[in-house]
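A note from the maintainers: we've had questions about how concatenated examples are separated. There is no special marker in the raw files; a new sequence line simply starts the next protein. For clarity in this README we add a label.
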Amino acid sequence: MITIRPMEIASSTEQLSHEVHVHGVATLNVVLEDHAVFMEFESPAMNLLGFEHAPVNDEQYALFISTQRTLANTSRLFSFSAKACQVENVAIPMPDRHSHRDSDQHQDYHGKHADIHARYMFQCQQIKDLKQIMI
């Protein structure tokens, strides 16, 4: 659950940590602007898939598709205290899902990290009534 409270914007002199890839850690950024709620979920693919490469078998491919569908199911992921919040946009650019077996070219994933980024936008008619977001 996220409780909505007014906060100060970080000054430009503060260093915000971006592009940090730590297994076991995920980030959910939430921004309220006018009548919109923007959310961005970032996680190493390892956290959600158990691997950071293109699926190499049917089990990994099924997990890849299932994870993408779960992240896209906003009605199961989020519940707003303001009843009039409606999903307007969902973008889930997943890492490369093409299996090595589907291609004659074998891309070397050794040493590379893959992240999953999910972006959501909701419109809320009564944004002033938004006090909590249940996740």
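[label: protein 2]
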Amino acid sequence: MGIREGVDAAGARARMRRAGRRPRRRRHATGSHTRKRLLLVALKLLGQRGYANTSTRAIAQAARVNIAAINYYFHSKEGLYYAALDQLVFASKLDVAALSTPDQPIDTLLHDLFPSLLAPLRKGRTAGFAVRLCLHELIAPTPMCRDKIAPVIRASHQALASVLCSHLGASDAH
């Protein structure tokens, strides 16, 4: 806020007090809303630009928050990126246990499998941001993604391969 804006705002408050009205206070977003907004904006910008080309300043400006909010909620840009990756991991976890019923026919298994794999893509615009972020990670992988996503994908892949092998009568190949 510039000096002129501060003077104008102070004058407006003084005029309201003289007129017997209380100045309206601007409502601030609650912490959880600020955190969610930062995550959504980060997912969007990181998906558009990639990790290396996205600054915390750009994220804060797009989320309309003070840049210190990123440090407050996530401790760093890396922490914000981990939280965005957590959103992807949470959305993409495969419920292999539900698919591993031994007496379930293979066609039923596969019929149930694809909707669970595609479910994260039904989450509206967030899904598009997530897909773009994953594509950036394929092009320019970051160590954070290797630490966060690779173990989840590996575990889901191994569990799925095990379930399919048991249905097909093949040996379990990891």
